[in-house]
C-alpha cells in the first residue's frame, strides 16, 4: 500500500481553504451539531441568506490531505478518520464484537467513504411515505437528488471502451459532481457476463427509479480534477468565506440546552467541549438546534440531554426530561458477508498496484500528468442489486415472505421493544411495507459489488433485525453501546444463505470459468444453512455492518414509535430537529451517500420554510 506520507508529499498544495472566522460571538440563528455530509449541506443552504448566521460544531478536524482526495484511497478504510467504537457483543453472531464505523472528520462519511454514488429504487422512498411521512416519496426525493447532483458524462472513447451507460436527465446541475472513472480492471467483465448468464436484468440508468438489477454507478469524483467530491469540498469550501457561516472543528457537543420555564422543551443552544483546549463553551441558537451527528451520536446526544428511554437514562444517571423509547431504537445497517474464491487473475487486477512497482509508477504518472488510469478509480462502479426473486426464484421468495409475514411482530426484536407497544407497532408497519415491496420485486435484497477479484461482498439490503444505540451506563460521555442485534430475525439468516447460494452460481458460470475459481470462504464443503452461517460467523466473514448506520431516531408518527415528524422536528420539543441518517425509517437498498444529499437538501428547505 502506498503510504499517506508519500501522497501528502506529492500533492501537498491541494489542501487550501480554512474555516471562516466570524466576529467572536456565541449566538447564532442556527447551531448545527455535526459537520458531516448533511450538516455541511444544510449549513451551506441556510447561510445563503446573508441575514442568517449559522454555526457548525464538528467533532473531528478538517482534513484535506490527499488520502481524502485521491480516488484510489477510497478502496480501503480510512480508520484514522473514524471514531473507535466497538459494538456490544452480538448475541446472534457468536457474541462477537465488531467495529462500528462513524466518521470523525469534517465532511463525515462523504470525506472518507468508497465514493459509491447510487440511489435506491422509487419504492424505497415510497415506503417512507407509506409510513405516514407525507412528502418523502420518490417524486419529492428525486427533485432534491437532482438539486444536489451533477453527472459529468465520460469522454466518448472512455464510454465506448468500458461500456458505460447512463441517462443525464436523472441528474441535475448541483454542487455534488459525480463521474465515471477512466479505468476498469478487465476481469470485472467476467462477473458482468456471469450476471447475464444468470438473467440478472440490465438497467441502463439506476437513478431513474428502477435500481433492481445490474448497472453502472458513477462515483463521487469531480471529473475536472479527478479528486473526491464531498460535502466539504463541493458545498462548504465553495462558500467558506461567507461572513455568516462558521465551522468549528474539534468541538464535541455534550448537551442540548433547553428552556423549560414555559412548560415545554424548547432548545436554546448547545454545550460543547473544545477538544483542543479541554474547555466547555455554550452556543446559543436563536432559531433552531439542528442535529446532524449521525445515527450513532445523535441518539446519544439526545439521551445525554434527557430525551430517550427512561430506563436507559436512569441507568446512566441522567435526569429524564422526556421519556421517549424511540430514541436509539430502530437501528439498522446492511449486514455483509465477505465471500472469497481463489482465482487466476488477468493483468492488471486490483492487487497489481500494490505488488507491481512498474505498474504503480505508470499509474502515478498517468494520474498526475494525464488525470487518467487506475488511480482515478475508487470502489466498484458496476454492481448487482438483486431482487429476492432473482436470488431464489419466485416460489421460494413467496414462501420466505409468507413466513416473514406470519411472524409474531415482537418475537425477534430487542428487549426495549417490549416496554413500548408503539415500537412494536412501528416495526409491524415497516414489515408490512417491506413484504409488499419485496413480493413485487420492487426493491433489492442484496448488493453484490463487482471488484474483478475473488472477494465478493454480499450486503443484505432489507434486514428485518433491529438494533439499539444507548448510553453506556458506566460511561455516558464515552462512546454509546451499539447493538445491531444482527441475524436475530430468521429472515435475515435465510437471506444471507440464499445470497451465498446465488454467488456460488455466479462463480460457476461459463463466463467465470476463465478465472478458475476455487471457493475458500466459507468453503464448498459447507452446504446446509446452519453450518454455513456458523462458518461465516466464526471466520469473521459475516459482519453486522457495511458502514451504513441509520434509523436510530426514525421519522414516523409517535404512535408508530417515531422520534421526528415529517418536518424533522423532535416530538415533544420545540426548535429541535434532526437531519442525518438516523431519521431514515427503513434503510434504503443503496449506499447512503446519494440519498443523504437529497435528504439534506430537502431538510434545508423545510427548515428555511419555518424560519
Automatic annotation (TrEMBL):
<dbReference type="InterPro" id="IPR000172">
    <property type="entry name" value="GMC_OxRdtase_N"/>
</dbReference>
<feature type="active site" description="Proton acceptor">
    <location>
        <position position="591"/>
    </location>
</feature>
<protein>
    <recommendedName>
        <fullName>Glucose-methanol-choline oxidoreductase N-terminal domain-containing protein</fullName>
    </recommendedName>
</protein>
<dbReference type="Pfam" id="PF05199">
    <property type="entry name" value="GMC_oxred_C"/>
</dbReference>
<keyword id="KW-0274">FAD</keyword>
<keyword id="KW-0285">Flavoprotein</keyword>
<feature type="binding site">
    <location>
        <position position="105"/>
    </location>
    <ligand>
        <name>FAD</name>
    </ligand>
</feature>
<dbReference type="Pfam" id="PF00732">
    <property type="entry name" value="GMC_oxred_N"/>
</dbReference>
<keyword id="KW-0732">Signal</keyword>
<dbReference type="InterPro" id="IPR007867">
    <property type="entry name" value="GMC_OxRtase_C"/>
</dbReference>
<dbReference type="InterPro" id="IPR036188">
    <property type="entry name" value="FAD/NAD-bd_sf"/>
</dbReference>
<feature type="signal peptide">
    <location>
        <begin position="1"/>
        <end position="19"/>
    </location>
</feature>
<feature type="domain" description="Glucose-methanol-choline oxidoreductase N-terminal">
    <location>
        <begin position="294"/>
        <end position="308"/>
    </location>
</feature>
<dbReference type="GO" id="GO:0050660">
    <property type="term" value="F:flavin adenine dinucleotide binding"/>
</dbReference>
<dbReference type="GO" id="GO:0016614">
    <property type="term" value="F:oxidoreductase activity, acting on CH-OH group of donors"/>
</dbReference>
<comment type="similarity">
    <text>Belongs to the GMC oxidoreductase family.</text>
</comment>
<feature type="active site" description="Proton donor">
    <location>
        <position position="548"/>
    </location>
</feature>
<dbReference type="GO" id="GO:0044550">
    <property type="term" value="P:secondary metabolite biosynthetic process"/>
</dbReference>
<dbReference type="InterPro" id="IPR012132">
    <property type="entry name" value="GMC_OxRdtase"/>
</dbReference>
Amino acid at each position: 500500500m502506498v503510504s499517506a506520507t508519500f501522497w501528502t508529499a506529492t500533492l501537498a498544495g491541494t489542501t487550501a481553504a480554512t474555516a471562516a472566522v466570524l466576529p467572536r460571538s456565541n449566538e447564532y440563528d442556527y447551531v448545527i451539531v455535526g459537520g458531516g455530509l448533511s450538516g455541511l449541506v444544510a449549513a451551506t443552504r441556510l447561510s445563503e441568506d446573508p441575514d442568517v448566521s449559522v454555526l457548525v460544531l464538528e467533532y473531528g478536524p478538517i482534513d484535506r490531505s490527499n488520502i481524502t482526495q485521491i480516488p484510489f484511497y477510497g478502496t480501503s478504510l480510512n480508520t484514522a478518520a473514524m471514531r473507535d467504537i466497538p459494538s456490544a457483543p452480538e448475541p446472534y453472531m457468536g457474541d462477537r464484537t465488531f467495529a462500528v464505523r462513524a466518521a470523525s472528520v469534517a465532511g463525515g462519511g462523504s470525506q472518507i467513504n468508497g465514493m459509491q454514488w447510487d440511489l435506491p429504487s422509487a419504492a424505497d422512498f415510497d415506503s417512507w411515505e407509506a409510513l405516514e411521512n407525507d412528502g418523502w416519496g420518490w417524486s419529492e426525493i428525486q427533485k432534491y437528488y437532482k438539486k444536489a447532483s451533477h453527472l459529468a458524462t465520460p469522454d466518448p472513447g472512455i464510454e465506448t471502451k468500458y461500456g458505460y451507460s447512463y441517462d443525464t436527465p436523472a441528474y441535475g446541475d448541483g454542487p455534488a459532481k459525480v463521474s465515471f472513472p477512466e479505468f476498469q480492471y478487465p476481469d470485472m467483465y467476467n462477473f458482468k457476463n456471469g450476471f447475464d448468464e444468470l438473467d440478472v436484468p440490465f438497467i441502463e440508468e439506476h437513478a431513474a427509479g428502477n435500481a433492481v438489477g445490474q448497472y453502472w454507478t458513477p462515483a463521487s469524483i469531480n471529473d475536472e480534477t479527478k479528486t473526491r467530491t464531498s460535502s466539504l469540498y463541493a458545498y462548504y469550501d465553495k462558500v467558506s468565506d461567507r461572513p455568516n457561516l462558521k465551522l468549528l472543528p474539534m468541538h464535541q457537543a455534550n448537551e442540548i440546552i433547553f428552556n423549560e420555564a414555559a412548560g415545554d422543551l424548547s432548545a436554546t443552544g448547545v454545550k460543547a467541549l473544545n477538544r483542543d483546549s479541554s474547555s466547555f463553551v455554550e452556543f446559543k441558537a436563536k432559531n433552531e438546534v439542528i442535529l446532524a451527528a449521525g445515527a450513532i451520536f445523535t441518539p446519544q446526544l439526545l439521551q445525554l440531554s434527557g430525551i430517550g428511554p427512561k430506563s436507559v437514562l436512569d441507568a446512566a444517571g441522567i435526569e429524564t426530561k422526556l421519556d421517549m423509547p424511540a430514541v436509539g431504537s430502530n437501528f439498522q445497517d446492511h449486514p455483509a458477508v465477505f465471500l472469497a474464491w481463489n482465482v487466476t487473475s488477468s493483468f492488471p487486477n486490483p492487487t497489481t498496484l500494490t505488488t507491481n512497482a512498474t505498474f504503480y509508477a505508470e499509474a502515478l504518472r498517468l494520474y498526475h500528468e494525464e488525470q487518467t488510469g487506475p488511480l482515478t478509480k475508487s470502489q466498484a462502479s458496476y454492481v448487482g442489486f438483486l431482487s429476492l426473486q432473482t436470488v431464489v426464484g419466485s416460489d421460494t421468495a413467496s414462501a420466505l415472505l409468507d413466513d416473514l409475514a406470519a411472524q409474531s411482530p415482537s418475537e425477534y426484536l430487542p428487549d426495549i421493544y417490549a416496554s413500548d407497544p408503539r415500537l412494536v407497532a412501528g416495526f409491524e408497519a415497516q414489515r408490512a411495507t417491506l413484504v409488499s415491496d419485496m413480493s413485487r420485486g420492487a426493491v433489492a435484497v442484496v448488493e453484490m459489488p463487482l471488484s474483478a477479484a475473488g472477494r465478493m461482498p454480499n450486503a443484505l439490503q432489507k434486514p428485518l433485525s433491529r438494533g439499539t444505540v444507548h448510553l453506556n451506563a458506566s460511561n455516558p460521555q464515552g462512546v454509546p453501546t451499539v447493538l445491531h442485534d444482527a441475524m436475530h430475525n430468521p429472515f435475515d439468516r435465510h437471506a444471507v444463505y440464499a445470497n451465498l447460494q446465488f454467488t456460488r452460481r455466479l462463480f460457476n458460470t461459463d463466463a467465470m470459468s476463465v478465472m478458475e475459481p476455487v471457493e475458500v470462504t466459507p468453503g464448498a464443503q459447507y452446504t446446509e444453512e446452519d453450518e454455513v452461517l456458523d462458518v461465516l460467523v466464526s471466520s469473521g466473514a459475516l459482519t453486522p455492518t457495511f458502514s451504513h448506520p441509520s434509523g436510530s431516531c426514525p421519522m414516523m408518527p409517535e404512535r408508530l414509535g417515531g422520534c421526528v415528524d415529517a418536518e424533522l422536528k423532535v416530538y415533544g420539543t420545540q426548535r429541535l430537529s434532526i437531519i442525518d441518517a438516523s431519521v431514515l425509517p427503513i434503510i434504503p437498498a443503496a449506499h447512503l451517500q446519494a440519498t443523504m444529499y437529497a435528504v439534506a437538501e430537502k431538510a434545508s428547505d423545510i427548515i428555511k420554510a419555518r424560519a
